[in-house]
Amino acid sequence: MQKQPPIKEQLKKKEVIGSETVMEKIKGKTPWLFGRAFRKPKLSFPKFKLPRLSLPMPSRAISMIGIFIVLFVLQTGVAYLLVREPPALGANQQGDPIFILTDINEAFIIESIVASILIILCSTGFVFLYQASKYVYNRKMAATALIIGVLTIIISFIALQYIIAIKTGVLSQ
Questions:
Q1: How far apart (Å, rounded) are the C-alpha atoms in residues 133 and 129?
Q2: What is the pTM of this model?
């Protein structure tokens, strides 16, 4: 009679060169469900070290200024100004200058710039509201930032509504 090997040797996994199952890699204790049918190949990739540039990061203030400049350029309607080529200002029948064109689908260049400035002011008001939440323990500073923020938001909103009222014909210039 042939003697069987001990149980530990029977449970020892058989080495298969070049591949290893996922379960064998994770624990080695749990049997692999698919047997030896599905194996993950062992691949070794060379590690390349790419040269890295170390550029200094701009401060938060410069980043915010850059974001506001990009917003200003986008909100002025640069694409509209380049494609349509509207006039900078206009005049009515008597020859008096008008700054707001009374057509909802058209705009003067100055009108686009003024609307963009008002939107930037409104955005700045929201930044002031955010800054007011940072000064919880300094009530005077928080109140000042809160008042400035709310006032800039309200003033810019009213001015934009006035422009829209003139454009739709509700008010006259």
A1: 7
A2: 0.59
Comparing CA positions, the residue from 171, 172, 155, 164 lying closest to residue 107 is 164
pLDDT band at 8 (very low <50, low <70, confident <90, very high): low
**pLDDT tens digits for 31-54?**
556 666 666 566 777 888 878 878
In DSSP terms, which residues pair with 98 in a beta bridge?
A: 90
CA nearest to 25, candidates 11, 42, 12: 42
172 phi/psi in degrees, rounded to 5: -105, 150
- Residue 42: phi and psi, rounded to 5, are -90, 115
CB atoms under 10 Å from CB of 23, counted, come to 14
Structure tokens at 73: 């350029």
Task: For residue 21, give every residue at least 6 positions away whose Cβ sits within 8 Å of its Cβ, in sequence order, or none.
Answer: 32, 34, 36, 38, 39, 40
CB 100, CB 168: distance < 8 Å = no
